[in-house]
Amino acid sequence: MKTVLATVVALGLLVPKVLAHGVDLRYQPQQVIRVTAQYESGQPMAEATVQVFAPDRPQEAVISGTTNAQGEFQFVPDRPGQWQVQVRQGGHGGRLTIPVATPTEVALTAVPEPPRTVSLSQYTPAQITVMVLAVLWGAIGTACFAWSRRRLPVES
Question: What start and end residues bound the annotated signal peptide (predicted)?
Answer without folding.
Answer: 1-20
